[in-house]
Amino acid sequence: MHIYAFGSICRGEVAADSDIDLLALVKGHDSRFDQSKYSIYSYSKIEQMWDKGSPFAWHLHLESRLLYATNNCDFLKSLGKPRRYLNCLDDCRKFQEVFEEARSSIFRDSASLIFDLSAVFLSIRNISTCFSLGVLGQPNFSRNAALALTGDLALPISANCHRTIEKCRILCTRSLGPAISDEEATKAVSEFSSIAEWMAKLVTRAEQHERIHQSS
Amino acid sequence: MREFTSRVEAQRQLLKTVNEKPWQREQLLALNSQAIRRWSIANHIDASTRLVHLLNDASAQIFTMANHSDDPIAGDYLLTKSRVDEIQTQIKKTLEEGA
After folding, report:
1. Chain A residues with CB inside 8 Å of B37's CB?
2. Residues B32, B15 contacting (CB under 8 angstroms)
3. pLDDT of A112-122, one tens digit each?
4. From A174, which residue of chain B is nearest by alpha-carbon distance?
5. CA atoms in the 13 A half-sphere facing the CB of B69
6. Residues contacting B52, CB < 8 A, separation 6+
7. Of A56, A77, A88, A191, whose CB neighbour count within 10 A is largest?
8. A53 pLDDT higher than 60
9. pTM of the predicted model, to two decimals?
């Protein structure tokens, strides 16, 4: 068994609403670990992620600290560097799809509104992380990865909109915070066409990057 | 790639099923144990009711889907997806019966 801390605490980013990300590596089922407190993986699953060069493997490689190991060996360190991340375009398209499905759901009805706004936050953050790793070569795994993109790649939404969808994410994943008002939600949704255009731009850049990479 | 979006969609459909009913204080926001607890406390729903059990069961199944979705063998994923569909039908029936 291995236990690691990863994410914001390893970057020294501490905020009142920050949680502490914990990773447990186990052999088979281990009932001691609460899935709401730990990301639980088998050793073989982690090795597969390293082999695919997945963003989560790079996240752990760059931003994790060993807390406990039954055999005194740092398993993640022993894996070395993950393979190069080659799935950027597919992943960017996947998170664009997550955004579009959330948007369609909101236009259909409001029965999953907060979950859908939370999915929009997830899609924005994750497409930014994948893009920063796969295209820019400067990975950003933070919750605010989208805000770190600059120039013509900057996220064209208001700080209020970003704050609202972030609050929805925290409500859905950790059940923390007050309910979101209808007014807040409506204002956030009114900026969705800007998000759609921005995502299309990232996907186009990822396509161009992949074409250049394939031809070289 | 499809498995990830299917997992999000499965959660969304379950939430829509539950939230079709106008709850007293707050909608169910997500399908994890904290969200289910928050929703049941806010709406004064006893944690021992069939509906809460079904939601916790669905939550566990979706977690299983999360763990299987990247695996090369799709069999386990499909099996769990059908179990989630089954739970959704039971939730619908329980709500219709006035839970």
Report:
1. 175
2. no
3. 999 999 999 99
4. B34
5. 16
6. B36, B40, B45, B46
7. A88
8. yes
9. 0.91
Which residue's structure tokens are 């999000």?
B8
Alpha-carbon span B90 to A11, nearest angstrom: 45
A98 vs B5, B35, B37: nearest CB: B5
Query: Mutate which of B8, B11, B26, B61 to test chain A, going by most A C-beta atoms within 10 A?
Result: B8
pLDDT tens-place string over residues A172-198: 988 889 999 999 999 999 999 999 999
In angstroms, the Cα distances linking A197 to A96, A103, A192 are 10, 13, 9
CB contact at 8 A, B16 and A109: yes
The average pLDDT across B21-33 equals 91
Q: How far apart are CA B61 and CA B79, in angstroms?
A: 10
End-to-end Cα distance, chain B: 36
Average pLDDT value for residue range B37-62:
93
CA distances from residue A212 to A55, A135, A142 in whole angstroms, order as listed: 21, 11, 28
Taking alpha carbons only, the member of A119, A114, A112 closest to residue A96 is: A119
